[in-house]
Amino acid sequence: MPDVVESRKQQAAAKNHPIKNEPSNTNGDDGALTLTNHTEPMEIDGALEIPSSKTTVLRGHESEVFICAWNPTNDLLASGSGDSTARIWNMNDNSNSANQLVLRHCIQRGGTEVPSNKDVTSLDWNCDGTLLATGSYDGFARIWSTEGRLVSTLGQHKGPIFALKWNKKGNYILSAGVDKTTIIWDASSGHCTQQFAFHSAPALDVDWQSNNSFASCSTDQCIHVCRLGADKPTKTFQGHTNEVNAIKWDPQGTLLASCSDDMTLKIWSMKQDTCVHDLQAHNKEIYTIKWSPTGPGTNNPNAPLILASASFDSTVRLWDVERGVCIHTLTSHQEPVYSVAFSPDGHYLASGSFDKCVHIWNVQTGALVNSYRGSGGIFEVCWNHRGDKVGASASDGSVFVLDLRK
Prior knowledge:
The chain has one helix at about 5-15, and strands spanning about 45, 45-50, 55-60, 65-70, 75-80, 85-90, 100-105, 105-110, 110-115, 120-125, 130-135, 140-145, 150-155, 160-165, 170-175, 180-185, 190-195, 205-210, 215-220, 220-225, 235-240, 245-250, 255-260, 265-270, 275-280, 285-290, 305-310, 315-320, 325-330, 335-340, 350-355, 355-360, 370-375, 380-385, 390-395, 400-405. By secondary structure, the protein is an all-beta fold. The protein has a six-stranded mixed β-sheet, with no helix packed on it. Strands 3-36-35-34 form a four-stranded antiparallel β-sheet, with no helix packed on it. A hairpin with a 3-residue loop joins strand 5 (about 75-80) and strand 6 (about 85-90).
């Protein structure tokens, strides 16, 4: 998937979800609108549909919303869109502040600031929730305050940024670009600390292993593990036979999971060159993967470590990585699944698909617990830090929050 957003847009166009001709009153900066679907909860496959009274639909974006992420310390939800803005929505119960902050991504042209007109495709909060980083197709990464102030602009990539992540310490930001490079940025100065040019094609994803080492993957089918200060990769993993869409280190930073358009999911270890597991079960491209926040080194040390994979074959699979076996196949979606996210306690998994549905699953049993059908194809799902709200973003410009408190 060399152009992830373009492929998403084509999906959206194929599904024909017009966004521009919504009634204009849904597009102001004047707060949240609650959508009313059904007065009575509806049973879906024995799971309870989340009622409209527990759903807040946030309108304001004027194009598809590719990403959303909760602040790690409170209920601020950030979203990034094809309308060249990111937004911060205040979903805290006691909030009196404006419901949405609009972070306009502008570029200098002829001495004046003009909208970049480029998609905001990646965003990440730092660990204490004080700063939000965004990556855009305009080639710039930006750092924002929670009040929506532009703190710094990071310019070094030549072309779109596909991924960016803060390290745990919060002193560095890592980005991956179409220019085949990955960059470590000094967050306080905004300067490029080191640029890594090891890939021979666009870099699609990056993930920190520690505060100064990371992995990157690319359309070149390779995965490199790199360290700040080193002039060549400390490890290169080869084995995928098509572009590698996403990579994630497990909570301890010992195992690296990767997923690819070659329909496989692979597990790698720094201790060996070949993959530890080659998991073949999906029958279409695997778009993304997530580790459960469980096992050694997590807040849930006694629960087993599980990996979730989301595929264009419209299924989600849950894997016991130690044994290398699929423990559950989750089959209620009807279209490609773009996003999965574990609840903070690891008990539940949220999934979002282009069938417009968000499903909540019991990880242990594989049972469908809750469902909600939105108004556009779902690109991203995410849990707040308490694990009682799920945010989602969609192809029709909507962002919504499901309140799972009883």
